[in-house]
């Protein structure tokens, strides 16, 4: 089974937006990701952390002004090298889907700014120029930043833009150091308005610039992600993101197609209703059964579903001698020869998901080969139709499957060794399915399916739910690596 290494679905966590919900088009979504309320809060915190990281240090323009000082007259004061080097957003921030987009409001922000100041004074009263300089630190208090982001579907990718961004500075505390700094507190007014205005202008400008980078990143995400040589995942976004009161849903085509050729389109399903069995999780990922069936179809058509069995726990069963009495002609024609079972799928296995279980139907042809000297001779072919049911478990960022045999039926397709009574081999086949086939399948499934997670994030407490035709993963997300998003590579 393919390992889904590259699915960058979780990247969605960062690109939350709400646009007027458009009618669902004729396009087909087979994977839906719903970022729930606490998922949005998490995304907001990550976004804010990234914003703070990329905003600081922020260089603000300098200023030079003439101020009037009683008795002295005009004095030229200047501030230069004004640098906002620390931002503290605290935890007073909110995120919610608004009318025209996703709104993030952070209030009570404090910031630290450093600057150099100087002043120059010369007049007819004094024959020499008087000048001084020093540094100042500025504490910005009660800053508020509001951003409205819009995410739209642009030709199958997500396009992000900032429709509104504002910054308001309530209070500045400027402390001068150096020179006769106590004296220059009087110049504070000259700088205060400038710094306030500079911050209120620079922060939104830089946020919009950062959003532009995020937008390029999003639009640059590949539409198809090759899982291996055979299969590719269609990552085309379908529809605009849709928002609820406190959640956003993204729909993705999500079907596995051949890496070389296209497959046919499969059926469309109604979209995910926001439900996680009453459990509150950050992220809900719903996968249609079509996603699994499209993958199985691709691997079937690529001819990779073959299996030759020459070892079984009871090895004597793979010798014609054991079949002397049940299939006499096999033994007469090939006495004491070793046998092989050449198993191939007659059609792509089918997965059926219901609220009770995940069921699979496997339709295989089992050719009995006899090793007659150097030659391998096919002597009979039995059609085996197996129904199995599966369970899904998770650990870390992986999903593991297990299957168990429910039932099976046998039919003789052709034979060169006379009629074989299926009822006589039923018991042996059951043992074979239980001791060889199911463990084999489980060892393949046991490699697990790597869940779509961006580098540096881990799914936590994944909870799996099945409903009609759908598998839903409900999960929390934790940040395991605080490296910058900008440099984060997808798994
Ligand atoms: C500007 O300020 C930074 C830190 O606040 C300081 O390291 C740097 O030397 C200053 N540059 C000038 C030209 O004063
Ligand atoms: C949090 O934000 C709200 C709304 O902007 C504001 O009224 C409140 O004073 C803030 N609380 C703190 C601790 O900053
Ligand atoms: C920012 O300024 C405040 C008040 O002056 C101070 O307590 C805090 O340590 C400063 N932060 C940094 C990172 O310098
Ligand atoms: C400007 O201020 C920084 C610290 O805020 C200081 O390191 C630097 O030397 C100052 N530059 C001048 C030219 O005074
Ligand atoms: C839309 O996407 C397709 C497939 O990636 C591409 O070939 C086409 O040029 C894109 N169209 C526009 C208008 O960007
Ligand atoms: C959204 O909020 C409105 C008003 O608060 C409420 O009537 C509606 O039922 C809510 N919808 C959902 C899906 O929670
Ligand atoms: C991927 O999905 C989109 C949207 O459903 C569809 O238009 C496109 O043909 C699909 N691509 C492939 C290779 O199947
Ligand atoms: C197994 O059977 C297939 C046809 O079903 C055949 O192409 C293949 O060569 C066979 N392999 C062996 C090892 O007998
Ligand atoms: C975090 O990611 C960076 C870059 O991808 C890597 O160099 C670093 O070792 C990682 N740290 C941890 C704790 O995983």
Automatic annotation (TrEMBL):
Keyword Glycoprotein: yes
Pfam families referenced in this protein's UniProt entry, alphabetically: LBP_BPI_CETP, LBP_BPI_CETP_C
Matching InterPro entries: Bactericidal_perm-incr_a/b_dom, BPI/LBP, BPI/LBP_pln, Lipid-bd_serum_glycop_C, Lipid-bd_serum_glycop_N
Superkingdom to which the source organism belongs: Eukaryota
Residue ranges of every copy of the Lipid-binding serum glycoprotein C-terminal domain listed in the record: 277-475
UniProtKB keywords: Glycoprotein, Signal
First and last residue of the signal peptide: 1-23
PANTHER family in alphabetical order: LIPOPOLYSACCHARIDE-BINDING PROTEIN, OS06G0309200 PROTEIN
Protein name per its UniProtKB record: Lipid-binding serum glycoprotein C-terminal domain-containing protein
Provenance organism: Urochloa decumbens
